[in-house]
Amino acid sequence: MLEEKAKRLIELKEEYDRVKDEYIRLRDEFHNELLNSQNRDFEFQGYRIMLVDDTIRRELDRALLQRTLKELGLSEDEIISIIISSKREIPLSGAIKIIRI
Q1: Would the pTM of this model clear 0.85, i.e. be above it?
Q2: Which domain holds residue 23?
Q3: What is the side-by-side order of every strand in the sheet holding 96-100?
Q4: Dihedral of CA 68/69/70/76: which sign?
C-alpha cells in the first residue's frame, strides 16, 4: 500500500514539475507578447489575462503580506513596521494576472 502511494506521489511530483515549468515558460512568453501589443489585457473563454504593472504588483504583494501577518496575530504597528521595511523585488517577467470573468 505504501509503495503504491509512494509511486503515485513521485509520478504526480514529476508531472507537477513538468507542468509548472511549462506554465512559467508560456506565461513569460505571453507576458512579453502582451507587452509588445497595443493591449493591456486579453479575454478568452471566460478569462481575462491582464498585465500587472509595478505599482499594482507592489500593492498586491503588500496586501498579501499584510493578510498573512494578520493571520499570524501581529499587531497593526508590527504589520506596518514590517511592510515599511520590506523591500522585496518581484521579477518583471510573468507579471500577469489571470481572472475568471
Answers
A1: no
A2: 2-100
A3: 41-44, 47-51, 96-100
A4: negative
Q: What is the dihedral angle through the alpha carbons of 11, 14, 18, 19, rounded to the nearest 10 degrees? A: 50
Q: Report phi then psi at 39, rounded to 5.
A: -95, 155
Q: How far apart are CA 59 and CA 65, in angstroms?
A: 10
Q: Quote the number of domains for the chain.
A: 1
- pLDDT, tens digit (0-9, with 9 covering 90-100), for 59-97: 777 777 778 888 888 887 777 776 666 555 444 445 666
CA distance 93 to 33: 11
* Mean residue pLDDT across the chain: 78
The closest alpha carbon to 44, from 32, 54, 29, 30, belongs to 30
